[in-house]
Specification:
CATH class: Alpha Beta
Distance between the termini: 22 Å
CATH architecture: Alpha-Beta Barrel
CATH superfamily: Divalent-metal-dependent TIM barrel enzymes
Largest sheet: 7 strands, parallel
Number of strands: 9
Order of helices and strands: EHHHEHEHEHEEHEHHEHEH
Number of helices: 11
CATH topology: TIM Barrel
Strand order of the largest sheet: 1-9-8-7-4-3-2
Radius of gyration: 17 Å
Shape: globular
Strand content: 5-15%
């Protein structure tokens, strides 16, 4: 898959969106974003469709808790309304990841839901937090055991920061999962669960260039779970760093 434009998870600017959806998307477009990853859009799909068009933005991916829904069709319909191709479930119960049986049952549920998503013209994905890596299943991180049981149609969005908070190497995980990974969340900070300590890319403890190099074909999605400063300024700083790091990596690859 061609990597596509740099994206931003709209959870990062949730407070601004609660006040002014159009203005928030316009500000992201002014920073230079061409793509966004919505969340909480299912009940506002028509509104998001209009706002995205006004801002000149696309939404190749989006988050919705489809695995918890009795009937995910409403989420599928909303995703198609706003132009999404990849619908990603963002969170599951951490207790699931403490046993091989829990992981197996979840993989079966994901595979079943992915078939339904495919009928709706969508690709289903899963996004991790720290607990999928912190827990081990048969000597490997639970996330990797989970991935091994997924239908080939299912994709992963690896949150590289949470991988390392969970005690694993983001580079190793990306390398092991290879083509399964179609999106990565890029964020930085001290690698703790304290979300307000997160920093613009390049200012924390993450080796962002190595992470980007380990997933050259994945769409980069910038995110702050929380940010102490102006989050739009933080996203602008992150964007500049990631674009420069990717360019350096591509130049190095050409030289090789």
């Amino acid at each position: 898959m061609p990597r596509g434009p740099l994206s931003v998870q709209l959870y990062s600017v949730r407070d601004a969106i609660a006040q002014d959806l159009d203005g928030s998307l316009a500000r992201l477009a002014d920073i230079g974003f061409q793509a966004v990853e919505p969340y909480g859009f299912v009940d506002r799909a028509d509104e998001y469709r209009v706002a995205l068009d006004r801002a000149g933005l696309v939404a190749p991916s989006a988050h919705a808790p489809v695995l918890a829904m009795d009937d995910p069709q409403r989420a599928f319909d909303a995703a198609r309304t706003i132009g999404v191709d990849f619908l990603i479930d963002p969170h599951t119960d951490p207790e699931i990841w403490t046993s091989s049986d829990g992981v197996k049952r979840l993989a079966e549920k994901v595979n079943e839901t992915a078939a339904l998503a495919g009928e709706a013209g969508l690709t289903l994905g899963y996004h991790n937090h720290w607990f999928e890596l912190e827990n081990q299943v048969v000597t490997v991180p639970a996330l990797e055991a989970f991935a091994a049981q997924l239908d080939p149609a299912v994709i992963l969005e690896i949150d590289t920061y949470w991988v390392e908070v969970g005690g694993a190497s983001a580079v190793d995980v990306l390398t092991h999962l290879e083509e399964r990974v179609r999106f990565i969340h890029v964020k930085d900070g001290p690698k703790t669960r304290e979300t307000e300590a997160q920093m613009p890319a390049g200012q924390g403890s993450m080796n962002i260039p190595a992470v980007l190099a380990a997933a050259p074909g994945a769409v980069r999605v910038l995110e702050f779970d929380a940010y102490r400063g102006d989050v739009f300024d933080g996203l602008a700083e992150s964007m500049a760093y990631v674009l420069a790091a990717d360019e350096r990596g591509e130049q190095a690859g050409t030289a090789d």
